[in-house]
Amino acid sequence: MRIDVEKLIPSIFIEDINLNKGNSYISQLTILTIKSLLPQEEEVANRIDYKRFKEELKLWEGYCIGENISLLNLIKERDRKQYFSYYDEDFYTRLIPLIVANGDFKIIEEELIKNLLYFSGNVENLLEWLSIAYGVYLLVEGAEDIDGKLKEYLIKLSQVELEESFNGFFTLNEEKNKAYKIRFEKERIALINLLNGVRLNKYLNLQDLLSVIEGGDPTTSLGRIV
Question: What percent of the chain is predicted at pLDDT more than 70?
């Protein structure tokens, strides 16, 4: 299976219209992300300019259409407890523009980690969307054996590098850092088991992507978009 990268962003807008009978916060977050992308002079990359991104988010608070109250509250309050529990159901609105704008997955991964952690420190959220991003990237590239490549990616994923990124948002004390490492390994193993065929009652967006790759009918917005 191969997907046309040029159809991904229009597919977000189509899904939004079908789901919400018009343009909602889904389209708005997608456009907001695109407007914040900045070509780099020293590398072939389009990265999010966070000064611009934060300004756009502040403006978005005033014109947001639809129900994404959790994200709005998180932006306003930056509450530590909410930050670590928040699952970003609509992260594809930032993920897809980054994939479309960049051909190097290392750049995509760096930008995704930064943007994921800007909104949430939830380990499940982080690992699932990174897996989805790599899966979508592989589909754009026309790669085969997606499951095998995803397992290899998860095995090699550096917890140390993620921790360094994570500390830029919230500093963890020794106890919290230990708990985070344990949770990270637990969820990494759960995702690898999922790719080995174990069914789980979570990671539904990733499960839907894998099902679509195998020819199944999509059940999530992400699945319908790709």
Answer: 87
